[in-house]
């Protein structure tokens, strides 16, 4: 039954392709996705597997904290050694909101490493505001301007941040899109600075972190390691082993929910040697029959659908000839076989084969010898259901020497059939015609003179 369902899913995939944008191949799942906006990318190939309203502006809720974390990592090198005191004023807006927190208290002394984990695991809103106050020089609005500017530097064209935690949304001009959140999450997860990259991944992928003893937390919970006070834990059900939606390949990244935003989730998953980055935004603000936010169900289903029905495979075989071209000036052969220079590893449906992928060749009418093995002769463009996958060079499979006699004969033939020769020939004919006309005219005049002279002598 499972194999039959998988086969049916594959047929649906091949028949339900949609075109989201240039050079992006996306597929339609064979199940309902409750999220309003989705952006799912295979990070090994860059292929967009699934997209839904990815450029629609939405309230991000606590996905906002990814950008707050990003700026913290880019601006504070010694996280553990940078100690901050939580300003009292930041707690004013949090009272009575039933907002998620990490139990950091007013005027508590806490280091930036703890603030990092407090933002990423339990989604502590007070932690985000403490970071914003510090990096904004005592001004949270100034920090939010930095957030928006950094987002634009990453290519986010539809993002505006007006708070560091995501408690407020569109009514406060605080918004982003699934595509922009993908850009931000990718910038963090694949940051060029190894320290930033690895620190972010460690925090985003952690399921538990022990907050240190402090001036406000002076006692340790039972089982706490030395110097630690209490544990904070991830809100991501995909990473909790006791969860009904646990997936062993999932690592990070961030949850977020408000009545306006619904349930949101950004995550990565690596299984079978392949990695996806998935942004799910705007699922209804309700839980399923097991008590989980619907963003977890959507993400769980999308990952299983991806790994069951798609794989990264070569679209071409570099050891197989796929077309031929005519050869000039060779007595060895009239045609030359061509092979792809690259196998073009890409994401393909498991049920597809080489006949599923359409090939469009761009070749000259003929090539002229001499030709060396490996010379680029043309290209082949691959497409799946009318959408471009990529383009690959086509190369010669062997050396072809030039026959000089054929070359000379052909060049002579080309000369006599060329426009230059035709024009020259016509000019010669015209010149010859003029010459003959002049000669005839002169001869006629000479005949008349001789006749006149003969007549004159008779008289």
Radius of gyration: 37 Å
Regarding quaternary structure, how should these chains be classified? single chain
So what's the overall shape?
elongated
Overall average residue pLDDT: 89
Secondary-structure element string: HEEHEEHHHHHEEEEEHEEEEEEEEHH
**Largest pleated sheet:** 6 strands, mixed
Blueprint of the fold:
Elements: H1 2-15, E1 37-42, E2 47-52, H2 64-75, E3 83-85, E4 109-111, H3 112-120, H4 125-135, H5 140-153, H6 178-189, H7 194-205, E5 208-212, E6 228-233, E7 250-258, E8 262-271, E9 274-283, H8 294-309, E10 310-314, E11 323-328, E12 335-340, E13 345-349, E14 357-362, E15 366-368, E16 376-384, E17 387-396, H9 404-417, H10 419-458
Parallel strand pairs: 11-15
Antiparallel strand pairs: 1-2, 1-9, 3-4, 5-6, 7-8, 8-9, 10-13, 11-12, 12-17, 14-16, 16-17
Summarize the structure.
With 459 residues, the chain is of the alpha+beta class.
If you had to describe this structure to a student in words, what would you say it looks like?
This protein is an alpha+beta fold and 459 residues long. Helices cover 34% and strands 24% of the residues. The protein contains 10 helices and 17 strands. It has helices spanning 2-15, 64-75, 112-120, 125-135, 140-153, 178-189, 194-205, 294-309, 404-417, 419-458, and strands spanning 37-42, 47-52, 83-85, 109-111, 208-212, 228-233, 250-258, 262-271, 274-283, 310-314, 323-328, 335-340, 345-349, 357-362, 366-368, 376-384, 387-396. The strands form 5 sheets. It has a 6-stranded mixed beta sheet with strand order 14-16-17-12-11-15, with no helix packed on it. It has a 5-stranded antiparallel beta sheet with strand order 2-1-9-8-7, with helices on both faces. Helix 3 (112-120) crosses helix 4 and helix 4 (125-135) crosses helix 5.
